Amino acid sequence: MKHLLAFSVFSLFFILAGTTQEASSQRRYVDHSTVDGVEIQYRWANSKWLDRNSPLELRLKIKNNNDYPVEVSYVIEFFMGPMHEESSDVTELCINPKLAKTGRINGMYYQSSSLSNQQLESDEFSWEIEDLEIVEVESCR
């Protein structure tokens, strides 16, 4: 009986470890670029946490590696092949030194209103950060 219990616990541990590792790899941010000491990363996630069929959204993480605060502004552009599909509104952030702002909590998530998840996952789809401005400021409010 002890062997069966130990085997069950051991098996459950590896099953959970495998799914956690797989899920965490989907949650990791991927490097996009570094400009003027500001590091930009991204990841794709479903808009509803437990619904894998919910619309995908692009989430950004922006870290200020400088020793001074910066204001960052940008626009996200979605493309299908050479065709421009959508633009986000201008996003403006103030980020203190050595800190980051991330994803949904800071309004840094972008969904397409016209493209399906299948289109977003296709090789034809691409996205870009446009009108990126990084300005040193005295402080963030």
Topology:
Blueprint: H1 2-27, E1 30-35, E2 38-46, E3 56-64, E4 70-80, E5 83-87, E6 91-95, E7 100-102, E8 109-111, H2 117-120, E9 125-136
Antiparallel strand pairs: 1-2, 2-3, 3-7, 3-8, 4-5, 4-6, 4-9
**Distance N to C terminus:** 62 Å
Query: Which class do the helix and strand fractions yield?
Result: alpha+beta
How large is the share of residues in beta strands? 35-45%
Radius of gyration (Å) = 19 Å
Fold and architecture overview:
With 141 residues, the protein is an alpha+beta fold. 21% of the residues lie in helices and 45% in strands. Strands 1, 2, 3, 7 and 8 form a five-stranded antiparallel sheet that branches. Strands 4, 5, 6 and 9 form a four-stranded antiparallel sheet that branches. β4 and β5 form a beta hairpin. The longest helix has 26 residues. It starts with a helix and ends in a 5-residue tail after the last strand.
What's the short story on this structure?
This protein is of the alpha+beta class and 141 residues long. Helix content is 21%, strand content 45%.
Feature tags:
single chain, 141 residues, alpha+beta, five-stranded antiparallel beta sheet, four-stranded antiparallel beta sheet, 2 helices
